[in-house]
Amino acid sequence: MIVDSSPIHFSIKVADFERDLSDIFAIRTRVFQDEQGVDPAMEFDGLDQTATHFLAYDEETAIGTARIRFLDAHTAKLERVAVLANLRKHGVGRKIVETALEFLANKNISDLRIHAQISVVAFYQKLGFVTEGEGFEEAGIPHIKMNYKFP
Question: Is the pLDDT of residue 142 over 90?
């Protein structure tokens, strides 16, 4: 058996929500509904149109996404971070989050929040997020609040 060990080559962009809606929703449907059993009404919460979305592409194929919502003048929330299962462990999620952090760095945001699934807390800690409080359940999945402070 021959295994292709070459790294994937991908790019991240700030999405145009209207144009990229189908790619964003396709990834989130596969990851959150199909894999994790999240209720579509909870996943598609009506807040997407006012959020800033990011998309990762492997050539022309959308492979990952995330959104940021601005909660107030200095606080934002990172949500819906999702990478297709067969492309995880290639740095796509890390690069999406780093791109979001760079995007926010010059937006006068001092505090970035996330409700992280417990299974990926270490991933976010490596990126500078710190856990806050006790764990809780969201969409039937254990989560914990995490926070990133901008310098």
Answer: yes
pLDDT of residue 7: 66
Sheet with 11-14, strands from edge to edge, namely 11-14, 52-58, 61-72, 75-83, 111-117, 141-149, 130-138
5: amino acid identity, one letter: S
Does this model's pTM top 0.85?
Answer: yes
Q: Are 66 and 82 in contact (CB under 8 A)?
A: yes
For residue 109, which phi and psi values (nearest 5 degrees)?
-90, 130
Q: Name the CATH architecture for the domain at 11-149.
A: 3-Layer(aba) Sandwich (3.40)
Q: Pick from 4, 70, 57, 59: which is nearest to 26 by CA? A: 57
Nearest to 32 by CA among 16, 20, 45: 45
Q: Percent of the chain scored above 70 by pLDDT?
A: 95
Handedness of CA 36, 9, 93, 46 (dihedral sign): negative
